[in-house]
């Protein structure tokens, strides 16, 4: 069974870049250009990792989605990689956000660094689904 990664990003070119990079590494990639309002959809995908554009849908929408995913019983154990170009908005919150299963990569990102962070976060994916 392939490792499933869900990428939520509203820029089509960046979304396609994630798909190409991750599929080349052997991951099964699901993409969406908007936030899921029904977390049951995410539960059906059953991802091992979620990559989220934190500024998707406006400044607060990504944060609200992060909070929702992080506290929902069906998705709370899924590691999260937050990607954003809004480095200045995150500097004061970065220490609160970073946990073993949540990390941040700033855009534009270095491909090798992104892949290393993905691999690291996947070590925190729920064992029963990997």
UniProtKB/TrEMBL annotation:
GO biological-process terms attached to the record: phosphorelay signal transduction system
Keywords: Phosphoprotein
Name of one Pfam family that matches: Response_reg
Positions of modified residues (4-aspartylphosphate): 53
All copies of domain Response regulatory, residue ranges: 4-122
PROSITE patterns named among the record's database cross-references: RESPONSE_REGULATORY (PS50110)
Protein's recorded name: Response regulatory domain-containing protein
Gene source species: Dictyobacter vulcani
């Amino acid at each position: 069974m392939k490792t499933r990664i869900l990428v939520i990003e509203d820029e089509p070119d960046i979304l396609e870049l994630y798909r190409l990079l991750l599929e080349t590494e052997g991951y099964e990639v699901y993409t969406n250009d908007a936030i899921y309002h029904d977390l049951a959809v995410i539960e059906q995908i059953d991802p091992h990792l979620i990559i989220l554009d934190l500024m998707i849908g406006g400044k607060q929408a990504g944060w609200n989605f992060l909070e929702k995913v992080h506290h929902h019983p069906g998705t709370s154990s899924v590691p999260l990689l937050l990607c954003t170009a809004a480095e200045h908005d995150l500097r004061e919150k970065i220490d609160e956000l970073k946990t073993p299963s949540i990390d941040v990569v700033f855009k534009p990102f270095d491909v090798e660094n992104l892949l290393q962070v993905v691999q690291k976060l996947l070590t925190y994916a729920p064992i029963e689904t990997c």
